Amino acid sequence: MKNLQTLSCDDGCLARSDSIFKHLSKEELDLVTFEKTVEQFKRGSVIYRESSRINGCYCIQKGIVKVFKTGIDGKEQIIRFAQAGDIIGFRSVLSSELACTTAEVLDDAYTCYIPSETLVHLVKNNGNFSMDLMQITCKELGEANAYITDIAQKTVRERLAEILIHLKKDFGLDDNKVLQISLTREELANIVGTATESVIRLLSEFKQDQLIELNGRKIKILDEPGLIRIGNLYE
Questions:
Q1: Sign of CA dihedral 36, 10, 171, 105
Q2: Whole-angstrom Cα distance, residue 208 to residue 227?
């Protein structure tokens, strides 16, 4: 379910200091403000589907969106999570290809929908904007390469520990050291790239080893250095 909203740009992604839109001129900001549509999506809503035609990109104002591909057997492979300030769907727009992923809302979200014509105009006429967009693309490509390496060289136990650390870095912990993103066991398995049963077993082992505490979907990090060691994460 989605609802069209009228919100001030001051409340959205255009005003963020770390936004990809930070280099736009006043005229370009006015153009985006005029052309954009702010939409509200409830948890479980699909923003766009794999193999569909996308006629614009989405900048996340609020909420969490999971971006995933679907395998031959219908199993999801989660590619990334998008949150406030992130932009999704732009690669399909710029390449004039059908969407290669599905974007589903995990936490009630507001998005700015920007038509493809507006995005292409900015890319062609604002070098700093184009460079920022290229850097985002390179970052995502680097993460994909790292994931391929992990799948080939790390055990499921190592990958799960690494994923928990990445989730901590991306979403943070609350005052009780609980991850500020709530995922089902199946969703965790779809990130790690394994069966749900394996994730359930490994989470139980991590709990027994006093690395984490579990309360339903909530995961409390007790021993971050221990998870880093298991995940073979070296910076």
A1: negative
A2: 13
Please, what are the domains in the chain?
A: 2-151 (2.60.120.10), 155-230 (1.10.10.10)
**Which of 107, 92, 95, 117 minimizes the C-alpha distance to 44?**
107
Rounded to the nearest 10 degrees, the angle between the axes of helix 127-153 and helix 116-125 is: 110
Mean pLDDT by 10 residues, the chain (235 residues): 44 66 91 93 95 94 93 85 92 92 94 95 95 92 84 90 94 93 93 93 96 94 95 76
Say how far apart CA 125 and CA 118 lie, in whole Å.
11
The predicted pLDDT at position 20 comes to: 85
Using alpha carbons, list the distances in angstroms from residue 140 to 34, 193, 212. 29, 18, 28
Q: How far is CA 165 from the centre of its chain?
A: 15
What six digits make up the tokens of 152? 């080939």
Whole-number Å distance between alpha carbons of 216 and 203: 12
Burial class (CB within 10 angstroms; exposed 0-12, middle 13-18, buried 19+) of 176: exposed
Element (H, E) at 164: helix 156-171
Residues with Cβ < 8 Å from 79, sequence gap 6 or more? 67, 68, 69, 101, 144
